[in-house]
Amino acid sequence: MEDAVTPAKAKPDAVKLEEAKRLFLESETATQHARDLAQRDRDYYDNWQLTDSEIATLRARGQPPVVINRIKRKVDWLRGLEAQKRTDPRAFPRTPQHERDAESATDSIKFVCDSDDFDGKASSVFENMLVEGFGGIEVSHRVARDAQGNERVDVALKRWPWDRLFFDPHSREPDFSDARYLGGVIWQDLDEVKAAYPQAAADLDGNLRGEVGDTYDDRPKWVTYVSSDRARVRVVLLWRKVKGVWSYTLFCGGAVLEEGDSPYMDEDGNSTCPLILQSTYVDRENRRYGIVREMIDVQDEINKRRSKALHLLTQRQTFGRKGVIDSVSALKREMARPDGHVEFLDGVYGQDFGMLNTTDLASGQLQLLQEAKNEIDGMQASGALSGDTGESTSGRAVLARQQGAMVELAPIFDRYQSWKKRVYRAIWNRIRQFWTEERWIRVTDDERNIRWVGINQPITLADALREMPEEEAIMQARALGLVPDDPRLGMVVGVKQEVAGLDVDIILDEVPDALTLQGETFEAIANLATSGMVPIPPEMIVELAPGLRRDRKDKLLELIQQRQEMEAQAQQQGAPLAEREAVAKIEKDESIALKNVADAQAKAREGVQAIPQFVPGGNVAAG
Asked: Span 268-273, mean pLDDT?
């Protein structure tokens, strides 16, 4: 079905419909308060920080409803840091025999991640972790067809937004490892669901709607009031663990669309759930939340103090004896105008009328406003982490400040990296389970070369003999009685890089961004080269140059090599005649010696009986 990656139909009655409904409504009811707070946190990120009554009060004063959104700036900064710190998966073998195969596993996982844009989806999950507190991805499979109509199974990555996920409210672990059930909500057009599941069309009218809150409602809400001819229904996908076995139920209203046991397994062959979720923090009531939660109060203070200071600076407090002013409201309007004019009935100013000085109140509000800004700026991401130290310091000092500031962010990124590691492991398990046919994947991690990696390659007898040492291959061919064009040479005798048999560990290969230190090191080396104190080859200087593209480095190295060859040729042409004659004699002697070795090898081969010679392509030619 559209927008949902679900397993193929399997055993009936895996989970009863009423039980599935009960679990969904249980989760929705138990997490109502946490979802309300998460929706508020998202509104603050999206700049909806003032209530309707607050906006009406400000407009009545003549003030603009200004919001200084420091939360969005903070979250976006951390999202940018996550993009800079992106890492790649790397597979390491558990046994020495699988050392070469581990590289194929790494390339396969990277291929799946690139094909389904895992980096972009992971960044969206990281944003949900920061704002609402949790998010996740479903690692499943889908059947695809090529241009020739051949079917193949691909690994599918589907990101689930936080407001489409539900879970066991008794789960307390940040990685949901103790959850007995997980699930997601999908909204679809009714006609599409009926077309995909005609056997359940009669039971789809009883659409299951939420009883508490509007988190799982269809979006956008205003479409419901504009167009009523488009029927939409809520489809719920529930994964439940019973006695160590995961099963699923896909239902809508009063109809079960699909149900069965999970087709997915972990590295030990145990049943597993394809939903991989992660939260940032969990409080003692099992509520999930992100870093925005602690910024709400400070953000409110920033908005309120800014508004209060603006109000004090644009309004004046007055005092006066009753009867001196004809209209107090008119007086207030005139004094709020920069060119206002006030008239008194008896003209006694200073004794019966005056203005109160409120600049101290406005100054106090501005000072507290600055303190609130400093407070929120110091949360999670500080200026030291971005390298903004306000002074000229060395690269090593900047790096030391950044490492110190990263300590505060370590818990967040540690849980995020742990989640990515679990996703990589799930991808590898899907590859081992569903990539059973021969497959070639293209790896483009090298700017100058494109590599093709073969998975599950069948090995024929000719291939096996070709990979053996020459003497061993000859002995095997004689033992089998092989002759040229022998049909047995095309028989499959094994599988090369069979992913189902690989046994590897998946880790994250962390590569810190050390451009600052690299630039400082290059500057020191360049200074040594120009001073002449240390003879440093120019090739080394080019290779160490930071920020220089690989193709530019290759061009410079080529020019340096050409110059060195020209200088060497010029020196050789200018050498004395005796030196050139000595070099020529040495070269002649070397040629005679090489010819003697070649003649001896030829005579040795003449005494060996002719045997089949195996060449690429499986053909056999007489030697």
From this structure: 92
How confident is the model at residue 597, as a pLDDT?
Answer: 43
User: Residue 382, CB half-sphere, CA atoms under 13 Å: how many?
Assistant: 17
Residue 399: its H or E element: helix 395-434
Residue 532's pLDDT band, with cuts at 50, 70 and 90, is: low
Query: Per the domain annotation, does 476 fall within a domain?
Result: no
Q: What stretches of 397-542 adopt beta strand conformation (E)? A: 439-443, 451-455, 457-460, 492-496, 504-509
For residue 344, the number of C-alpha atoms closer than 13 Å in the C-beta half-sphere is: 13
The C-alpha atoms of residue 579 and residue 571 are separated, in whole angstroms, by 12
H-helix or E-strand containing 346?
Answer: none
- Find residue 278's DSSP bridge partners: 135
Rounded-to-integer distance, Cα 303 and Cα 318, Å? 26
Angle among Cα 522, 528, 534 to the nearest 5 degrees reads 125
Question: For the sheet containing 245-252, what is the strand order?
Answer: 165-167, 181-189, 232-242, 245-252, 255-261
Residue 297 exposure: Cα atoms within 13 Å on the Cβ side: 3
Around Cβ 279, how many Cβ atoms within 10 Å? 26
3-state secondary structure of 222: helix
Which residues share a beta bridge with 38?
Answer: none
The verdict on residue 358 lying in a domain is: no
Are 495 and 454 in contact, with CB atoms under 8 Å apart? no
Question: Which range marks the domain in which residue 246 is found?
Answer: 1-31+119-288
Give the C-alpha separation, 138 to 496, whole Å: 30
150 within some domain: yes
pLDDT of the residue at 605: 41
Q: How far apart are CA 533 and CA 225, in angstroms?
A: 80
User: Can you say whether residue 243 is alpha, beta or left, with left for phi > 0 and alpha for psi between -120 and 50 degrees?
Assistant: left
- H or E segment at 144? strand 134-145
Looking at per-residue pLDDT, the higher value among 369 and 53 belongs to: 53
CA dist 368 and 583 (Å) reads 86
**Cα angle value 563/566/572 (rounded, 5°):** 145
462 exposure class (CB count in 10 Å sphere: 0-12, 13-18, 19+):
buried
- Strands of the sheet with 151-160, listed across from one edge: 151-160, 134-145, 275-279
Tokens 């709607």 -> residue: 209
Q: Note the pLDDT tens digit of each residue in 50-72.
A: 888 888 888 887 778 888 888 99
User: How many domains in the chain?
Assistant: 1
Beta bridge partners of 441: 453
| C-beta separation of 265 from 429 below 8 A | yes
Residue 600 counted as domain residue: no
d(Cα 183, Cα 251) in Å, to the nearest integer?
11
Q: Tell me which residue of 327, 305, 328 sits closest to 317, measured CA to CA.
A: 328
